[in-house]
């Protein structure tokens, strides 16, 4: 008697992608929208937090400390602690993602603001700039490169983190990975992984491109 | 409030602490897997980092490695390894080791790179060979940053290991995943508290260890510039006036702290 041949289980299968395009598209869309929302919310929170820590240096330690502790808590634990209160679903994942992106962004905003050349600050003060005008017209634009770097870092990390949302049923592409693992379907896992990497790459390039556009002075070539 | 009570009831039940799937056994597995992963990563990353840093040309390599692995989801690597036949904790150790390499590598390279060029010159001036200078001069000066890298890597691994519970690895994360599976949110919360507690505890202990490892002379130096922001600004100004690669400073920053 011949043993039944095991069906092929390739890592890459274009057929799988074609057949499940709608499903993959849904997961990708969920992944991208979660990332986008999380980074935008975290950015909106991080800007004032960073500025506050900059204006009141005594607050810098506590602000970064709290964000650091939040960052140390593992994502799985954070989702586990949140889930009983915020329920199973999108909100839980979003809160988790925002709290992780928050540390990276706040720290980069603060570092960018503090990295402004004291001579530039002096010059602005000498021209009669008030504290708030100094912040908005001089320090924030000067801090842009650091802020953009923080945005890139936060976005790439968030793309990777969304997959953990699978424990509360909202993992975007992580959903596909987990299902592929459960049914031992290699193509599904690999497709989701590749899409994740691509999404991170695209987001990174887009933000880097925008960053270049809004900081034209940084492009001025250095003396050779 | 109900779930919180449930969680405390769960934590207070001695039956949940002993036995094969008790908290103690799972915590032991958790720590064991983490230690193995960090050791494995250190065996790979430290010699490589020392070599690259000593040659003074590894900064970009480290950054590229760090940025690529940051984009690769942990879950993806875990499922990939688990699905290709490495079940259980072998897959976990391997996957976590991969994620522990970047902080170790970046910090070793940066640590050696930040050694004052004058100091290195002086070492050569008194007749030290390259290896001797690396061992006796550059390495001790780089210890604080390398220790910071080990700490980052260790805490990161401790935080990653629970995820492996999704693909069959045994760790404290198992409690959380089982709780989700049986919709027992008291248990989920209890598991979450245990995992978070372990990570925060490890972070604290390693911070103390890092302090003790730092040579006393450097410790005094660090105290002068101990408030982190000012140290960072100084470094940022030194390293990136033109800000050609914002990602470099960003990733170094996240590598040395957190």
UniProtKB/TrEMBL annotation, chain A:
<dbReference type="Pfam" id="PF00528">
    <property type="entry name" value="BPD_transp_1"/>
</dbReference>
<keyword id="KW-0812">Transmembrane</keyword>
<feature type="transmembrane region" description="Helical">
    <location>
        <begin position="91"/>
        <end position="113"/>
    </location>
</feature>
<feature type="transmembrane region" description="Helical">
    <location>
        <begin position="62"/>
        <end position="85"/>
    </location>
</feature>
<feature type="domain" description="ABC transmembrane type-1">
    <location>
        <begin position="28"/>
        <end position="207"/>
    </location>
</feature>
<dbReference type="InterPro" id="IPR035906">
    <property type="entry name" value="MetI-like_sf"/>
</dbReference>
<dbReference type="InterPro" id="IPR000515">
    <property type="entry name" value="MetI-like"/>
</dbReference>
<keyword id="KW-1133">Transmembrane helix</keyword>
<keyword id="KW-0813">Transport</keyword>
<dbReference type="GO" id="GO:0031460">
    <property type="term" value="P:glycine betaine transport"/>
</dbReference>
<keyword id="KW-0472">Membrane</keyword>
<dbReference type="InterPro" id="IPR051204">
    <property type="entry name" value="ABC_transp_perm/SBD"/>
</dbReference>
<dbReference type="GO" id="GO:0055085">
    <property type="term" value="P:transmembrane transport"/>
</dbReference>
<comment type="similarity">
    <text>Belongs to the binding-protein-dependent transport system permease family.</text>
</comment>
<protein>
    <submittedName>
        <fullName>ABC transporter permease</fullName>
    </submittedName>
</protein>
<dbReference type="GO" id="GO:0005886">
    <property type="term" value="C:plasma membrane"/>
</dbReference>
<feature type="transmembrane region" description="Helical">
    <location>
        <begin position="159"/>
        <end position="178"/>
    </location>
</feature>
<feature type="transmembrane region" description="Helical">
    <location>
        <begin position="34"/>
        <end position="55"/>
    </location>
</feature>
<feature type="transmembrane region" description="Helical">
    <location>
        <begin position="190"/>
        <end position="210"/>
    </location>
</feature>
UniProtKB/TrEMBL annotation, chain B:
<protein>
    <submittedName>
        <fullName>ABC transporter permease subunit</fullName>
    </submittedName>
</protein>
<keyword id="KW-1133">Transmembrane helix</keyword>
<keyword id="KW-0472">Membrane</keyword>
<feature type="compositionally biased region" description="Polar residues">
    <location>
        <begin position="248"/>
        <end position="258"/>
    </location>
</feature>
<dbReference type="InterPro" id="IPR000515">
    <property type="entry name" value="MetI-like"/>
</dbReference>
<feature type="transmembrane region" description="Helical">
    <location>
        <begin position="133"/>
        <end position="150"/>
    </location>
</feature>
<feature type="region of interest" description="Disordered">
    <location>
        <begin position="222"/>
        <end position="258"/>
    </location>
</feature>
<keyword id="KW-0813">Transport</keyword>
<dbReference type="InterPro" id="IPR035906">
    <property type="entry name" value="MetI-like_sf"/>
</dbReference>
<feature type="transmembrane region" description="Helical">
    <location>
        <begin position="157"/>
        <end position="182"/>
    </location>
</feature>
<dbReference type="GO" id="GO:0055085">
    <property type="term" value="P:transmembrane transport"/>
</dbReference>
<dbReference type="Pfam" id="PF00528">
    <property type="entry name" value="BPD_transp_1"/>
</dbReference>
<dbReference type="GO" id="GO:0005886">
    <property type="term" value="C:plasma membrane"/>
</dbReference>
<comment type="similarity">
    <text>Belongs to the binding-protein-dependent transport system permease family.</text>
</comment>
<dbReference type="GO" id="GO:0031460">
    <property type="term" value="P:glycine betaine transport"/>
</dbReference>
<feature type="domain" description="ABC transmembrane type-1">
    <location>
        <begin position="27"/>
        <end position="206"/>
    </location>
</feature>
<feature type="transmembrane region" description="Helical">
    <location>
        <begin position="31"/>
        <end position="53"/>
    </location>
</feature>
<feature type="transmembrane region" description="Helical">
    <location>
        <begin position="188"/>
        <end position="213"/>
    </location>
</feature>
<keyword id="KW-0812">Transmembrane</keyword>
<dbReference type="InterPro" id="IPR051204">
    <property type="entry name" value="ABC_transp_perm/SBD"/>
</dbReference>
